[in-house]
Design goal:
The complex is a heterotrimer. Chain A is mainly alpha-helical. Chain A folds into 2 domains: 41 residues, no CATH class; 176 residues, Cytochrome c oxidase, subunit III, four-helix bundle (Four Helix Bundle (Hemerythrin (Met), subunit A)). Chain A is 69% helix and 0% strand. In chain A, helix 3 runs antiparallel to helix 6 and helix 4 runs antiparallel to helix 5. Chain B is mainly alpha-helical. Chain B has one domain: Up-down Bundle (Cytochrome C Oxidase, Chain A). In chain B, helix 7 runs antiparallel to helix 9. The chains are: A mainly alpha, B mainly alpha, C alpha+beta. The interface between A and B is large, with 44 and 44 residues. Bound molecules: heme-A (2 copies), dinuclear copper ion (CUA) and copper (II) ion (CU).
Chain lengths: 222, 564, 306
Amino acid sequence: MTRSPSTSPHNDESPINLERIRQKFPRWLRRFLPSGGGSHEDHHGKGMFGFTIFLLSESIVFLSFFFTYAVLRLTTPNWLPAGISGPEPSTFVIINTVILLSSSLVIQLAERSLNHHHLKQFRWLWLLTALMGTYFLIGQGIEWSQLHFGLRTGLLGATFYILTGFHGLHVLSGVILQVIMLVRSFIRGNYNQGHFGVSATTLFWHFVDGIWVILFSLLYLW
Amino acid sequence: MTHSSNEGATNPLEPERSNQQFNWRYYLHFSTDHKVIGVQYMVTTFTFFLIGGLLAMLIRGELVTPELNLVDRPLYNALFTLHGTVMIFLWIIPFNAGLANYLVPLMIGARDMAFPLLNALSFWLIPPAGILLISSFLLPNGPAQTGWWSYPPMSLQFPPGQPINGQLFWIISLILLGISSIMGAVNFVTTIVWLRAPGMTFFRMPVFVWSVLSAQLLQLINLPSLTGALILLMFDLSLGTNIFKPLEGGDPVIYQHLFWFYSHPAVYIMALPAFGIFAEVLPAFARNPLFGYRSLALASLGIALVSIFVWVHHMFASATPDWMRVLFAITSMLVAIPTGVKAFGWTATIWKGKLHLDTPMLFAMGGAAMFLFGGITGVMLAANSFDLHVNNTYFVVGHFHYIVFNTITMAIFAAIYFWFPKITGRMFAEGWGKLHFWLTFIGANLTFFPMHPLGLQGMVRRVASYPSEYQGWNIIASLGGFLLGVSVLPFIANAIGSILDGPRATDNPWEATGLEWTTSSPPPRDNFAEIPQVIFPPYNYGNPRAYGEDSATQSGEEVSSHNE
Amino acid sequence: MPQFFEYFLLTIFIAGLIFISHWIGQQAYTWMPPQATAEAQRVDDLFSFLTTIGAFILLGLVSMMLYSVLFYRAKPDDYSEGHPSRGNAKLEIFWTITPILLVAWIAFQNINIYKQLNILGLKQIVQFPLDAAPAEAAMVQNTPKPAAETIQVIAKQWNWRFRYPNDVINRELHLPVNESTRLNLQAEEVIHGFYIPEFRLRQDAIPGRDIAIVVTPIRTGKYRLQDAEFSGTYFALMQADVYVESREAYERWLARVAQQPIELVDAAVAEQSRSPRTLLKTGWYTGLSDSASVADSLSPKDGGNS
Ligand code: HEA
Ligand code: HEA
Ligand code: CUA
Ligand SMILES: [Cu+2]
């Protein structure tokens, strides 16, 4: 998963030549500008290590929510308040889920293209992932607006919105990360020395998808 | 712009600094140097210690008499809530992070932490979070007043119709501090796993590094459950959900589980680095190798592991079924085993040594001895049949202050004195240090010992007024408390005076082993002129030049196999 | 023979330790309040046992440290090595096994005593209303042992009330001596803690949950029930008087309060209306805000039949 990128530079025609732009600025300002190309050291390995343990830690927050949800649901006699139907695994939700889960495959392909120095292909696949993520978010919003219960509708509403909301925030962060990485791919030479950011975003995306599988089973299938 | 690996050294954002000078102005900047960040952490958190201590002085002041006469009830409740919160989350935990920040890269032979920028961010979250918490004293209805556990549904009772309230400030502040801790933990674990110098195998790492590793793993595993609980609490408090509201179908006991799932390990997150400090200081002043190095190193991990599974011992009197009480009583007692290994190891290290009773050693030995007391009352509490008598009484308060103050804060002072020459390049005044020690040692026992008889007699905690039969012991505790308040004065005077005008320290004033003593005092920006090649086991006290230049003639491995 | 002599000294040292810690363990009984229930004796036995072991470990290790401090001092400038030993496998195994055995022993004693404690109501306090059984049924289910009386304990911010079998509600807890009484703990808004030091008994009451304990007091007298789970501003004042008395006296008292309810002042309300003079005054929200609540808690229904 944390494949070390090859260091041989690929044929990079990216439009933004950061070094040249940087030279146009006065010296005192230059130091505040981001530099392309990363560092010569292998930051990839320790970066991915750190990010992985961060995600493992993050998953405990979800675990604490799952625990709360499970205990509440197990000990509450009438989980659904009278006259209110719970979230249903409708076709709409299932399509949403399929889109999100398949985007994991797309992002993996994207990273692979980057490993093989197919920068253009990378950008397209990457953009596709971000669009799929956005689709999911919008779908989630529509789903929210169509439900018959709100945040304060008993334990059902509270847990449902907090869990899906917290997950949605993660999807949103993933999409934002993807946009940043996409923009950075237009900086000439940015990924020459490695693409920790891309690998981390990919891993994060898989994480977000994995959480959704559990969440979906708990909220819709249980 | 070049991207050379020693970019940090020439980072134009950071003012120039000469190696042999400790310039305090330098520490006011945003810096990514782990040593600067470490000092920033330590100074900031010490300030919070003074604030938390000031609150404790007010608490002890109120408790001199059975009646209310110093503070009114809401204020008293705010005092112990913030005292507990500040001391745990703004003093001991972040101080340990600061000390580890300073020492870990030096001890493992790295030039910096794995993620220097992240490191700086972790630190810079602390002042705003702390200020937010303290500032809640200015709110119309004051800060959170529900104890450092903030159990719902009580913590959800803040005056209705006030969206901005002390409880909310408390929650937000704790979430911020949690984020800071997680970023720090990622950084520490990565640093220790990835950045060890050549030859610095895991079993050559000082026990301090082992204990930091164990403590930070606990942060990663357990802290998020507190964050989760706080998020849910915030929803209940501010957005009208009912997860923890029993009368609306929710379950407050879930919060207790989530809270203690973190906050029990938190006590070992605080204690483990203190154990690490003992393991560095005791050998240096007993001139003996640390006895049973491997078992002590592994015991750190053992303590961390067991402590994940003991949290229900804080809920023996809650809605906890019998099987849970008995099971968690047993797991809690199991912690005594790896901890005992540590305690025996320390004692054996001192045994037949050549003791130098300098200030760091006094603090370390005093702390270790008082730890035994606190640990043993801990095992008593773990016996749930007995705990049902003293739960939420001063016996518990006495138990944990013997550890959080008499052990950990003492260990922290030992560490400050021990590494003071390394950090500042100056020696402190020994006489003032000894005065500080004796005031602290006597004050600590006077303050916290009387709490045990009080608790056994049934005095509950968190009360501003109490039946008059408890007054005698309370007066002693308060006098002891005020003595503690006085005891920090010689320390502060000594620290400031010595930084400004102490005698120059050599690189290794204690003739200690450990990589941090092989570099200059204070160390240069990149820590080592050349990354050391480690060929010796730690604590090579038989072999004072353990990390010397002509390593070929040394035979460290032989020493390691020397068993009596 | 220095070897022999060392062992001899060690034996004396350990014998002395055992003697002293045993003595301290015996003293432990006197540190506790009077024993008003049969359970209290058992808890005190456990505490004495723990104190003995604790004193043995503490004194043993601390005296070794003190010995080192007294007799193994270095000359001021002697930074040479003390002794080269880095460890000793046998010794390390020994001091891993010893705590294991001690812990096993302590755990055994603890479980043993917990079983005898007969705070039987603690069984199944977490009731899974999965089967949607009515709360009462669930309560009867975990009736641990027949109790002569059942008294309902109602905790609210910040007072205790007790509902007796004849439906009398009063602010005093009266218990017949040498009989088992079942206490059903209920909390109205927040968690409260039922704690009588002389009973060595402590249990939280949680709103919305039925938690029951059975007590068997064996010593007549007046005791104090103290809330032991922090519950807000006037937590410290949340106390009630407990009277353990003969069956006859108990019956007489019950009959009397049924006739003519005794008014007891609510300590929190009293303090609210006449707050003590303190150096620092905040005026922060106390939770007892309006006079309505004063009227409520002093109303006659509180002390009499309802
Ligand atoms: C950093 C601090 C720290 C440390 C290290 C400990 C260590 C231990 N603590 Fe403590 N504890 C707290 C901080 C700490 N505690 C705090 C803050 C609270 C209260 C929180 C609150 O309510 O606000 C608390 C409360 C607390 C309770 C809950 C009491 C109650 O609320 O009713 C219990 C119960 O089991 C407990 C047990 C223990 C045990 C078994 C240990 C063990 O780890 C101790 C192990 C050490 C030894 C035993 C000594 C050395 C060992 C030997 C020499 C070997 C031989 C010994 C034997 C076989 C006995 N602690
Ligand atoms: C974690 C660390 C820690 C530390 C170090 C301490 C240190 C001290 N604590 Fe406490 N304490 C807790 C953690 C800690 N505490 C916790 C978690 C609680 C439970 C809270 C709760 O129930 O929710 C608690 C509760 C608690 C209580 C019980 C309150 C109650 O239940 O009603 C008491 C009572 O005496 C007390 C006292 C003290 C004293 C006298 C000190 C002394 O050691 C302090 C010594 C202080 C100093 C040496 C500094 C004094 C400074 C000055 C005098 C100068 C100030 C100047 C400026 C600010 C400019 N603490
Ligand atoms: Cu009343 Cu707790
Ligand atoms: Cu604990």
